[in-house]
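The protein record quoted in full:

***
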Amino acid sequence: MNSTVSQFNYGMITPVVAFLMACAGAALGLRCTTRSVRMGARGRRGPWLTLGAICIGSGIWTMHFIAMIGFTIDGASIRYDPALTFLSLGVAVAVVLLGVFIVGYRGASPLNLGVAGVVTGAGVAAMHYIGMNGMKFAGHMTFDPMTVGLSVLIAVTAATAALWAAVSLHTLASAAAASVIMGVAVTGMHYTGMAAMSVHVDAGSRVQGQSSMDLLFSLIPMVGGPIVVLVLAAVIVMFDPDMLVGNEPVQNLQAHESESAPVADARPTASWPSL
């Protein structure tokens, strides 16, 4: 039989904190990706792109499970399968890493951006539904295909916009604005996906309800790890001055490189005698 669910067992605390975590992960990820682009071909982009992907993926995943702290099912006790829960984290980081590496190394042409956005967005949506499949209770879930499709579309749009911003916006103000937009989109994707779900609790196994604190304490250890990662990434960003105050456009850096190249090439040429 269908059961009543609540998305906001703690009121607006969980959606607001979840939104802020999505914004934080996006902001850190965008600054790391910008740092790699500013380094140009002369620097090692891989570590910064990887850190950016970890930040964005961890922010999205943490947003999802903080929001799930406020989710309850009337008449059912919920637990989470750790294997599937952490698999969803791995999927989130992996697909964001793939998308960031595509645009970070190949550029944000329409084709590259489209491919990276679709792959990353579909992966983020997969993270959401893998995480939902990790939710265990005495019953089962069904999903409305149209609403699921809408949540995937939102995820793809959000991912494409985030990847474009990562390689196209290079100031703190623009990164902050993009992070807020990303936070809104990711949060919207989550609650759209939750709206697609109907819960059916087994009639013979209904319980009086689950303690909110029990659910909270079961999820906090899972969420704690990615939060620590985001804190460490924030420390790295804070201690890299170029990450905070380097707002020179990448085009100018490339122009400086091209201007200095002929000078270096001209020196050996001038030493050859004319024939």
